[in-house]
Amino acid sequence: MPRLSPSEAAPTPDEHCAKRRQILTGARAVFLEHGFDGASMGEIAKAAGVSKGTLYVYFADKHSLFVAIVEAEIHDQGWGSFDFSADTDVERQLRGFGQAYIQTLCKPRSSSAIRTVMAIAERMPEVGRSYYERVIAQTVRRLGEALKRQVEAGVLKIDDCEFAASQFMMSCQASLFLPFVFQATPQPTPERIAAVVDSATRMFLAAYRVPSSS
Amino acid sequence: MPRLSPSEAAPTPDEHCAKRRQILTGARAVFLEHGFDGASMGEIAKAAGVSKGTLYVYFADKHSLFVAIVEAEIHDQGWGSFDFSADTDVERQLRGFGQAYIQTLCKPRSSSAIRTVMAIAERMPEVGRSYYERVIAQTVRRLGEALKRQVEAGVLKIDDCEFAASQFMMSCQASLFLPFVFQATPQPTPERIAAVVDSATRMFLAAYRVPSSS
Amino acid sequence: MPRLSPSEAAPTPDEHCAKRRQILTGARAVFLEHGFDGASMGEIAKAAGVSKGTLYVYFADKHSLFVAIVEAEIHDQGWGSFDFSADTDVERQLRGFGQAYIQTLCKPRSSSAIRTVMAIAERMPEVGRSYYERVIAQTVRRLGEALKRQVEAGVLKIDDCEFAASQFMMSCQASLFLPFVFQATPQPTPERIAAVVDSATRMFLAAYRVPSSS
Amino acid sequence: MPRLSPSEAAPTPDEHCAKRRQILTGARAVFLEHGFDGASMGEIAKAAGVSKGTLYVYFADKHSLFVAIVEAEIHDQGWGSFDFSADTDVERQLRGFGQAYIQTLCKPRSSSAIRTVMAIAERMPEVGRSYYERVIAQTVRRLGEALKRQVEAGVLKIDDCEFAASQFMMSCQASLFLPFVFQATPQPTPERIAAVVDSATRMFLAAYRVPSSS
DNA sequence: TATGAATGAGGGTTCATTCAT
DNA sequence: AATGAATGAACCCTCATTCAT
Q1: CATH class of this structure's domain A13-75
Q2: D140 - beta bridge partners?
Q3: Chains meeting A at 3+ CB pairs closer than 8 A?
Q4: Is the pLDDT of residue C76 over 60?
């Protein structure tokens, strides 16, 4: 039996994926704004521009949709785009990464995701763990590897490079991230971020830079 | 007939306070475990061992009860008990405070509160701000003052002591707090905490200690 | 065992009656404003200035209290004070009564009572019946008797005086009471009432006055 | 396979309207019996044969449903069907209308609606006003116009025809409507109504008929 | 596939009533 | 007698989910 027109029958994979993405986009907005419990499937459907029933064609239930959102956030938030090879000078490397990192971290989108995932981590440990591993820990690991290369180049002296990476990243957050997520201060300006990252870089190098032999 | 104990007779302020505390205790457990939206007044009533109606005798609504819980946590979590005057040696001072701080921060109770308050900060900014100000910022301030004293004693050389305090505190969290709140690692052991705080202290002093003149 | 002071022991009947009246006063305000279902015992207690428990010392339940209120309204609304003997001239008699009647009927207090009792009459027929009988029907009866006296005096010619009384009273309401209870018009002014009652009186006398023999 | 009936297939506007009507029917029964506050959405759902949730698919809240009920009653109660042109003889016209009017007014359905709307008029003035205007006032207006035609035909002599209409309608209620709404007497018989309306007609014509010139 | 009508369990909240004091 | 803390049933309403179309 020939189909009269493709649009009247089973959707093509493209259409399927498009609608799926549409749902994810709407759901992300609602989940990140209201959290898992505060988000309602009705509001998600409206935000996605589909019917409530359609949500259940693509996702088994609210939980599955939420997991998919977190999964998507893990890939889309831009944590993978930090470029550690751009610079070989350790100071510029740290400053460049640090600023990009804090800028990303303090975007409303990131902080909403962190809030939302952190909030649910007690009841959905795998979701929390997965987000941490593939977003934060992975970034720590990549910075750690960059530091390792500097150690091997004799520029830095560090025992545990991954730990040092975490140490640097945390000190870059000083006075910036926590007050921002708790809504105690507005989103930090690039200038403020640069100053804080500068200070963190100085402290880090004071501790780990191999004294120049000159 | 002599009364066995006064608590069996007087129904008034003591019992009133007692029941209030009983409700707060139950509500804290439920709110901190499930978050604001995930907690139900019915579950809270059950946890507190009172009827649902009784909740509304003591608190106007769910929001008020939640605010009271956060308020209580602000006072009860032990952030105010850090003792900065115990030691005058800067290194021991930093290590002592850092360990106590991370120990407190990484207790399940603290991390649950942080998760819960952080999650709601977007919809209840005053709650988030209040928690940050009176728990975290206050601790930063107190450490900053301690550092200032060291600066005045000529031991440290720091421009912005409060910022330096935040920097130290954040670097103490390296590899410990974030994986813990995201449920990626179990509660850190005291040994691990000690090692991390040691490292943070070394880095901090490398950057800010005035070289001994000897 | 002698009582130390009367105020410390069983209250005197006076006190008892006073508190009872106090409750009735508060309850009347609340019941008449919100209706039986819309009124809450808590609000009544507050309006009466007593505790909720005290209400149940004086009245078995909400229903009993409501019945008592209606009973009190039946006596207190001033429907019994119409004076038919003040005037012997039939025209002045009708006008005088008509104005007093409509004035009373269109007071907020009367219309609230009528609304409230009428609303509940389907579920509490005895309450409705009692109110009608002892307020409205009684007034009709008294006017009917006054008319009868005029008939006996040869001034009016009426078969059924009680029915004629009702007829007069209803025609006095024309354009006044219904729009007022339905909140379509404000409380009528005395002037408007006088005009309407005048017209009703003229119509009534046109139909029932014995033509003067002169 | 041919469909047996269209109603078994199309789920859309017909069924939507049908269910809406079904809800309105159930809600009317409950609201008119118990009043706004006495009616519960659960009972309405049961009476309508739908689930509680379905009510909220069709109506935003209890208040909206109630307003819709009153609106429907305004149209469905048959107040618009009085025919003033059927008769040109003024006496037969008044008698015919008067009987139809009182018959309608004293049906349980009308008196329930009046009770319910009157009861809520203090808290929902627009509802009360709307009901009065579009049911009672409109009928008064239409009778007033019919009277005006009789005035223009030289049959009646009336200054304010709308007021006279109200006067006639009120006097038709004498001894009938009030005792009925207050549940003091049963629904009046057609014979009783006829007698009362006859009397009202006689009184009205005695006052307003232009004496025949013969 | 996509819909949206329909559901019923459960949400927060109120309230008439009781009872120990 | 008077209280007010306590209750639990019922209130209105929301929501995740299902299902016929």
Answers
A1: mainly alpha
A2: none
A3: B
A4: yes
